[in-house]
From TrEMBL:
Keywords on record: Hydrolase
Domain AB hydrolase-1: 116-367
GO MF, one annotated term: triacylglycerol lipase activity
Gene3D superfamilies hit by this protein: 1.10.260.160, alpha/beta hydrolase
BP term (GO), one: lipid catabolic process
Native source organism of the sequence: Hymenobacter montanus
Protein name (Swiss-Prot/TrEMBL): Alpha/beta fold hydrolase
Biased composition (Low complexity): 13-22
């Protein structure tokens, strides 16, 4: 799902109702206007969702922002994202939208490019027009930071890049006299759902008073990384997402300094092919791709370094304070439904009373996206 935000312009909008986002150093480094889009133009951008057009209320302006954030290794870098601002409305809540998986070869689909047909251009722009200033981070590895490897499914850096973009968005609104209120909503699907969960947790841990979470609605994220690894390595049926799981392994091997040769994880000829092209085609059968020793170690929980990397990225077992709604297709063939079920049960077990589980009956990873968008919008609209 996506949202477009109108640019922050000087107008008769009320002065921002919040102080600068945090007492920390400013993160915003630059802004460029991408364009302004009328309600007529926005109304036709989501033809597959008939109700979407009825949400359009305001024209929007879209800006590309650049801002300071940190790499997984702790070095400062410049990242980018899009901010969408409804024109003629305010003070408005801010919605942080975390996008789904983008392979590096699809880099121009990242939010700051505002590419025709991207989710930020379509659904997210409609959500912005409904009355939200949208903060849409590119993440590391895209846009201004495209020279870096994207830390795929790495909770800490997805969260920090998204939080710093949210800070930059509020700084931008203050500079441009765009009226915003203190509310912060979080949405995202697939990798974006995982990033949304990571962002929610980080904001409550570090920014509880300066960037309080009003409500979040993550969709179809792989929150239980430890169980997901056992699912992948133990599967006997074909799994069509194994090329993206190779990306997860590559990310964790690098960030957690496991520094293993590809032959540790993969059988030939795939280890050699992946060495030449990290996104080379791989078989859908796990027992054809992964080495027997690696599979057995994960299933028996005897690979302590890898288990620690997985545990560091588990996001299912904590207690959120703000309302949180988990959306997930019950027949999801890329990210199994148990990820949301496990999170719901663990959070409720920790005493989180404002957590909801919204199964999408029979929905797979792709067919559930439209239902997620409408359900998530309905959920945050209550607040």
């Amino acid at each position: 799902m996506a949202l477009l935000a109108a640019p922050a312009c000087k107008s008769n909008a009320p002065e921002p109702t919040t102080a600068p986002p945090t007492a920390e150093a400013a993160v915003l480094t630059g802004s460029t206007l991408i364009g302004e889009y009328s309600t007529t133009a926005l109304a036709g951008r989501v033809p597959g969702v008939p109700l979407a057009g009825s949400l359009v209320r305001y024209p929007i302006r879209v800006y590309r922002l650049t801002y300071h954030t940190q790499t997984p290794e702790g070095a400062e870098t410049t990242a980018s994202g899009a901010v969408l601002v409804p024109v003629g409305a305010g003070p408005l809540p801010v919605l942080s939208y975390q996008h789904g998986t983008l392979e590096p070869r699809s880099e121009t689909q990242a939010p700051s490019y505002y590419a025709t047909g991207s989710d930020v251009w379509s659904v997210v722009s409609v959500l912005a027009s409904a009355g939200y200033v949208v903060s849409a981070p590119d993440y590391l590895g895209y846009g201004a930071s495209k020279a870096l490897p994207h830390p795929y499914e790495h909770a800490a850096s997805l969260a920090s890049a998204s939080a710093d973009m949210l800070r930059a968005t509020r700084e931008f609104c203050q500079q441009q006299n765009v009226g915003v209120n203190p509310k912060n909503f979080l949405l995202g699907y697939s990798e974006g759902g995982y990033a949304t969960m990571a962002l929610h947790k980080l904001l409550e841990e570090r920014y509880a008073t300066t960037l309080p979470v009003t409500a979040s609605a993550p969709g179809a994220g792989a929150y239980h990384k430890t169980a997901f690894a056992r699912y992948v390595l133990g599967a006997t049926q074909p799994l069509n997402f194994l090329s993206t799981y190779v990306w997860v392994l590559r990310t964790y091997d690098r960030i957690y300094r496991l520094n293993r040769p590809l032959s540790f994880y993969y059988q030939e000829p795939y280890a050699t092919r992946l060495q030449a092209d990290p996104f080379a085609a791989v078989p859908s059968q796990p027992n054809q791709l992964f080495t027997p020793a690696f599979r057995q170690a994960v299933l028996a929980n005897t690979d302590a370094p890898f288990a620690a990397a997985l545990a560091a990225n588990d996001l299912y077992d904590w207690r959120p304070r703000a309302p949180l709604a988990l959306f997930h297709g019950t027949a999801d063939d890329y990210v199994p439904f148990f990820n949301s079920q496990d999170a719901y049960e663990a959070m409720r077990g920790r005493g989180a009373t404002q957590v909801e589980l919204h199964p999408i009956p029979g929905g797979n990873h792709f067919s559930s996206a439209a239902a997620y968008t409408l359900g998530a919008y309905a959920f945050i609209s209550q607040y």
